[in-house]
Amino acid sequence: MSEIVDVAVIGGGPGGYVAAIRCAQLGLNTVCIDAWKNSKGRASLGGTCLNVGCIPSKALLESSEQFFQIKHKASAHGIQVDGATVDVPAMISRKDKIVTTFTAGITSLFKKNKVKSIHGTGKLLKRSKTDEAWHIEVKGNDDAQTVQARHVIVATGSVPRQLPMVEIDNERILDNAGALSLSEAPERLGVIGAGVIGLEMGSVWRRLGSEVTILEAMPEFLMAADEQIAKEAKKIFSKEPGLAIHTGIEIKSIKASKKSVIVNYQDADGGTQKLEVDKLIVAVGRTPNTSDLGTDENDLNLDERGFIEVDEYCRTNLTNVYAVGDVVRGPMLAHKASEEGIAVAEMIIASEKGNNQETEAVSFNTIPWVIYTSPEIAWVGKNEQELKKAGIAYKAGQFPFIANGRARAMNAPAGFVKVLADAESDRILGIHMIGPHVSELISEAVTAMEFFASSEDIARIVHAHPSLSEVIHEAALAVNNRAVHI
């Protein structure tokens, strides 16, 4: 491209494509560079999230939960279903159709908003002091071109963290992409890593009949969550659907054959153990994707973990170069990436108009976390162990779903909601949930915290009856020992 565009976005995931669309909506001439290919070798926007992450995993979680409910829970409603079976290839096909629909939708949004899409890998070229714009080399399948842009947004996302002792082949040893594309439920499935990916994929295949064993290196289960929530989750998951979860383990070796995978590990007590499975999912986290981005050539600052260093407004140390999403500090969450992309777009248009006033930064304290297991887990703000460590005096209120009419009618009584509030001001510091549809309920908590609400504010709001949201209401009442229905 010979013209100089206003903005070039490198990466077409939730951070990149949202940033590109918002830039275009604001009147900026915008190009989005993305290298993702689908299983058929075709360009596919949406990054990890839409292609092999958030969207396909939720499709499989929903399908497997439907099967589990029919086979094991329908009888509680007086519904008898004999001989229920699952067609895994049909389930995978449904998931693939959903992915195709959404990735094609981004292409349509680009056309609607006049965002130019270029397929290939983008690399920042060395910039001289006389260059009026950044030069970005874009390598496609068989060719290369150069894009010039006044502003650059890096949104290259993250890649699965690798274990040095094993190679992912997505036949016997799987990453998140391979775990989403199995043609049948393996009899024995091993999962290394009890994070979001490990728990969600383990849940999918356990519901479909696999015997699932999860090995986690951390000494406790779900250490990022509130301790009480984590303990409740482990108790529930171990019972139903029946995940075998082992924490505090150290992997010693992994050996794959044509028939199985053998994992040798040391357990929390120092004992030597062996796990033999038919398939093994490796889900030990993700690392920022800065490979071949031109970081060294341009002295783009990276931190000790490989993340691009940015300030609270996502500005890097390079002039007019921003970075958002998984490639920078903060939680690796699609919605966090999107909000950062929007914030950067609005900062760029402000600077283009000569207004150098900084826009509002994304607040990490009110970003919701969700794990789509059954029951679901969600939280926002500080948990109890964080408040104790910081020496912050707080009050806690809690209410169980088993005492909620809607939850009992749904035959989903497991879990509870906990509200944490400042001991003096009553301002909400965090809200934590495990239970049915808490991925939807958490938005009330986020809204309350964004508007600096107190537990009393939620307690005074009228909640519909019967509804799951009443559990939040009662938990807020419980902060000051005013819960009614327990």
UniProtKB/TrEMBL annotation:
Q: Which is a Gene Ontology cellular component entry for this protein?
A: cytoplasm
| Cofactor comment text | Binds 1 FAD per subunit.
Oxidoreductase as UniProt keyword: yes
Q: Which reaction does it catalyse?
A: N(6)-[(R)-dihydrolipoyl]-L-lysyl-[protein] + NAD(+) = N(6)-[(R)-lipoyl]-L-lysyl-[protein] + NADH + H(+)
Residues the entry annotates as binding FAD: K58, G122, T156, G157, S158, D326, M332, L333, A334, H335
Would I find GTP-binding among this entry's keywords?
Answer: no
Pyridine nucleotide-disulphide oxidoreductase dimerisation domain location, by residue?
367-476
UniProtKB keywords = Cytoplasm, Disulfide bond, FAD, Flavoprotein, NAD, Nucleotide-binding, Oxidoreductase, Redox-active center
Molecular functions per Gene Ontology: dihydrolipoyl dehydrogenase (NADH) activity; flavin adenine dinucleotide binding
Domain FAD/NAD(P)-binding as annotated: residue spans: 6-341
Residues that hold NAD(+) according to the record: G193, A194, G195, V196, I197, G198, L199, E200, E216, G285
Checking InterPro entries in the record gives: Class-I_Pyr_Nuc-Dis_Oxidored (IPR050151), FAD/NAD-bd_sf (IPR036188), FAD/NAD-binding_dom (IPR023753), FAD/NAD-linked_Rdtase_dimer_sf (IPR016156), Lipoamide_DH (IPR006258), Pyr_nuc-diS_OxRdtase (IPR001100), Pyr_nucl-diS_OxRdtase_dimer (IPR004099), Pyr_OxRdtase_I_AS (IPR012999)
Task: For this entry, list what GO says about its biological process.
Answer: 2-oxoglutarate metabolic process
Miscellaneous: The active site is a redox-active disulfide bond.
* Family from the record: Belongs to the class-I pyridine nucleotide-disulfide oxidoreductase family.
Q: What is this protein called?
A: Dihydrolipoyl dehydrogenase
